[in-house]
Amino acid sequence: MKEERAIESGVDLVLVNSPLKDYDQEPRRNNFTLPTLGLAYIATCANRSGFAVRVLDAEARGLGLSQVAALLNRVGPRWVGLNLLAPTYVHSVRLLQQLDPAISVMLGGHQAKALPRSILEDFRIPRIDALVLGEAETRVPRLLGDKRSRGELPGVFWREGQTAVMPSVRAKDPLLLAPDLDAMPLLDRSHLDHDPYSDGGVLESAMVASRGCPFDCSFCGAAVSSNPDITIRMRKPDSIMAEALDLGTRLGVQRVRFVDDLFLANQRLMRTTLSAFVDARLDMRWDATGRISSAFGAMAARVLSSGS
Q: What mean pLDDT do residues 104-115 have?
């Protein structure tokens, strides 16, 4: 288990992954949580822009809501950001009710994108200074630099008093909504409590090779109809290999797990990525989740030879 990173006083932003349960009421019983790659990417990009941003994974640390609120109020960041998800929404609301009023509030996540007006009009939440829809790596540094920029940024709403402010701002720069994956810095994994992690004695890290999904499943927040502003983007093989090599040489990672929505179903992505693994001759294995039929046929030999 990695040592938990301390959060210093007076940072610009603390991004919080709310707990699945209020661990003030009962202790956390499992000892692993999927790494919050999205929050860590935002923190990494904001750090590169010169801001002090930290991630507090309350689920991974098994913290109760009162513990999270006490920590945040003690360190006093300028902003606190929460990723709103259906399973943790009620806990996020209760946490926001306990925050020092001097702290600005930034919200995002799947729930924010699916139901922005409902969230802005949920007056159990004391204040909302920025509701950021979708991928936020390029917009969060702008907000940290000047809160007033929210009126110029696409997909950023807020509340003034009891009024939901939802301006229609056209994205003059497409990178504000769909960042260039190859241009982003390598993920700073000091923001992750459970990555790398040991899986049966094998040290594994999670990676993302693409963003966006071409399918339109009605039950999924990643459905293409729910994300018309998002283009499907694939990282270049040299970008993926640079991260894999860094993980292996610097952190001793032995296996990477691709956590893309449909890594195995994207034949083009698989073909280029697996060929890069073969050509690089890395002493590393990989895995991913998907339908077994995705790996049948001519691709099966490439999957096996690349180290799956």
A: 95
